[in-house]
Amino acid sequence: MVPVFSPLEMIFVRGEGSRLWDQQGRDYIDFGAGVAVTSLGHGNPVLLKALQDQAAKLWHVSNYYTNEPALRLAKKLCEATFAEQVFFCNSGAEANEAALKLARKRGVDISPDKIEIVAFNGSFHGRTFFTVSVGGQPKYSSGMGPNPAGIVHVDYNDIEAARRVIGAKTCAVIVEPVVGEGGIIPAKPEFLKALRELCTANDAVLIYDEIQSGNGRTGALYAYMNGDVVPDILTTAKGIGGGFPIGVMLTTAAVGNHFKPGSHGSTFGGNPLACAVAEAAFDAIRDPALLASVRDKAERTAGRLRDMGARLGCFSEIRYQGLWIGCELSERFANRAGELIGKAAAHGVLALQAGPNVLRIATSLTITDDELDEGLRRLEAACAALTAG
Q1: What is the Cα 146 distance to its own chain's centre?
Q2: Are 327 and 5 spatial neighbours (Cβ–Cβ below 8 Å)?
Q3: Burial class (CB in 10 A: 0-12, 13-18, 19+), 263
Q4: Has residue 5 got a pLDDT over 90?
Q5: What's the pLDDT band for 331 if we cut at 50, 70, 90?
Q6: What pLDDT score was predicted for residue 13?
Q7: Which residues carry this modification: N6-(pyridoxal phosphate)lysine (predicted)?
Q8: What integer pLDDT is reported at residue 214 of this predicted model?
Q9: Whole-number Å distance between alpha carbons of 192 and 227
Q10: Model pTM?
Q11: Does the annotation flag 92 for ligand binding?
Q12: Residues in a beta bridge with 358
C-alpha cells in the first residue's frame, strides 16, 4: 500500500454492535465508529437485510439512468430537511467538491469575479486538491505546489474577521457547525447567525459541512436543526451509509439549478446498493427515540469523562455535541493524544484524535449501556497508565 496511513498493528476480522475482534480473537470496544461512520454499529441486521435484498436485484446502472433506491432516498432527504435537490456521490470529500463547484458556478453566473470562497482556520473538508485547499489546516495542503486561487481563511467563531472578508466577490462561505478534526469545537450561535446574514447581504451561498456532524451525531438529525440558521447547501457522508460508502450534497432548487446536465457527475454516485443501505440507515437514524437516546448517552458520557479527568488529571476540558466528544488533554499531557490512543488500544478500547491535544470519541449511535460502561472503564485504565507514566 502507498504509505499515506500509519495504522495500529491489530487487524480486525469481525464486528458486532460496538465491539470488534482482531485476528487473535481479542475484543475491543469501538469508541471511534470508523471515524463516525458505523453510526448504527457493526453488523447491523437492518442494514444487512437492505444490502442483501438490493444485491439480489440490481447493483449498478450508471447515471445514464436512475434507480428506485436513489429516488426514494432523495425524496426522504428533501422531506426531512430544507433541501429541494440532492446530488449523490461516494464520500464527504466528493460531496464538498460538488458543493464548492456549484457555489463557484453560481458565482460566475452572477459575475465573472464572484469566485472567492471563505473558510476557517482549523477546518477540514476533504482530501481532494480543491477541498484540502479550502480546509484550514496547512499541514494537509502544503507540499503540492500552489493551491487554487480565491480561497480566504479566517479564524473560526470570529465574527469581525468574517465581516472583513465576506463581500461582493464572495461566492460561498463553508463552515462546520462543529469543527471535528480541529478539536470538536461547536460554533457559537451568534457566529452562524452572522454568517447567514453576511451571505444573504452579499448574495453568497452558505455551505454547512455536516460530513461528521450530520445523521444524528449531535442528537439532531442534522446539526443545523440545533439552531435557527438554515444553510443554502449541506454536505453529508460518513454516518448516513452506516459503513457503506456514500456522500450527499443537499441544496435548494434556486442554487442547484445552476448546474446543468454535464456540469458535474459521479460514475458510482447514486449506486443502488449504497442508496438502499443509506435509506435503511436514514430511516433508523431519524427515529425521535434514537435521537433522544443519543442526547441522554452524551450527557452521561461527558459527566463520566469530566469525573475521570478530575480524578486522574488527564483532561482539562470536555467539549461535546451529542455522541461526538472532544477531551482536551491537561497541560501536563499536552500534545500526547496519539500516545493515549495507543494506550487505549492496548487496554481494549478504540478512540480517535482531533489534533495532537484532543482525544475524540464518536461511538455508534446505538451503543448499548453495557458497551459504553465497559469502554469507559477501559479508557480510564488507559488514562491511569498515562498518568502513572
Answers
A1: 27
A2: no
A3: exposed
A4: no
A5: very high
A6: 98
A7: 238
A8: 97
A9: 9
A10: 0.96
A11: yes
A12: 328
Give the three cell numbers for residue 117.
470562497
Which tens digit of pLDDT belongs to each residue from 154-170?
999 999 999 999 999 99
φ/ψ (deg, to 5) at 195: -60, -40
Cβ contacts of residue 162 below 8 Å, gap of 6+? 118, 154, 173, 191, 194, 195, 198
Residues 6+ apart with CB under 8 A from 292: 219
Note whether 135 and 126 are within 8 A (CB).
yes
- Residue 261: count of CB within 10 angstroms of its CB: 6
339 is in an annotated binding site: no
Q: Is 124 annotated as a binding residue?
A: yes
pLDDT tens digits for range 112-154: 999 999 999 999 899 998 899 999 888 787 788 888 889 999 9
Q: Where exactly are the structural domains of the chain? A: 12-30+288-388, 45-285
Residue 209 is placed in which grid cell? 459541512
Per the annotation, does 203 bind a ligand? no
**Amino acid identity, position 149:** A
Q: Which CATH class is domain 45-285?
A: alpha beta
Q: Which residues contact 301 (CB under 8 A, 6 or more apart)?
A: 320, 323, 325, 361, 363, 372, 376
246 is an annotated ligand-binding site residue: no
93 annotated to a ligand binding site: yes
Q: Which three cell numbers mark 155? A: 479564524
Angle between helices 369-388 and 288-312 (to 10 degrees): 20
Tell me the residue type at 132: V
Rounded CA-CA distance 73/79 in Å is 10
How many Cα atoms are found within 13 Å in the side-chain-facing hemisphere of 165?
Answer: 21
Enumerate the H helices of the chain as residue ranges.
Answer: 33-36, 45-55, 68-80, 92-110, 129-134, 138-141, 159-165, 189-201, 253-256, 272-285, 288-312, 337-346, 369-388
Q: Does residue 389 register a pLDDT over 80?
A: no
369 is in an annotated binding site: no
**Residue 299 cell numbers, joined:** 450527557
The architecture CATH gives domain 12-30+288-388: Alpha-Beta Complex (3.90)
- The answer to whether 209 is annotated as binding is yes
Q: How far apart are CA 293 and CA 313, in angstroms?
A: 29
